[in-house]
Amino acid sequence: MASKLKLTVGVCFVTFVTLLYFVTPGESQEGEDVLKDQRGIDQAVCSQGEDKILTVQYDFMNGPVLCGQDVPLGLFHSRPPSVKYEHAEKGSRYLLAMVDPDAPSAKNPQMKYWRHWLVTFISGDDLQKGIRSKDWGSTGFGNILTTYEPPTPPPGSGRHRYQFLLFLEPPTHPIILTQEQQKHRGKFDLQAFLLEMKFETLVAATEFVTENAGDRDEL
User: Fold this and answer.
1) What is the pLDDT of residue 119?
2) Has domain 2-113+123-209 been given CATH number 3.40.50.620?
3) In the 8-state DSSP scheme, what is residue 112?
4) Which pLDDT belongs to residue 44?
5) Which residues of the chain have pLDDT under 50?
6) What contacts 11, CB < 8 A, 6 or more positions away?
7) What residue spans define the domains of the chain?
């Protein structure tokens, strides 16, 4: 079941040329303390081979997210990223989740998993081709259960991971959120949701890291 999914965290930190609004690879070892000692689905990123890495790209980047990379918070806007998965199965349907497991901070993640985006009934054919940023919400490009919300780490709360998780949907079970889940993005019990909706297969994932450098002490 979904609770048994185990992928090992791999971290690829980068530096950025922010004035030109595009991302270039670099080297950094900062922030590893945020990523260690996490368990379960928190490790569902980065190191299971290229065929398991979900291609996610924001329009301010000159290429897809490098799994584990740092992205400056100020570059994000209200538009969702483009998403592509070349290994998606034609005729199958998928669920895409974007969550923050470090809400309100990695040291005190009592609001995990903060749900930033949840789209169901995504066509494998569309994922193979790639779904552009502007196409999300259009007819035929999935059923949006939670509208996209860009990263919103609280000031001074340290580094946050933002994880994109792609699941193969069961063929007949309807995918819904409860009324309570619809009201609140925080404290989203992702594992319980996946079990209740009868998801069994995590097919791909990626993540980036960002932070809001404020003047408050870390939460």
Assistant:
1) 96
2) no
3) P
4) 52
5) 1-40
6) 31, 32, 35, 46, 68
7) 2-113+123-209
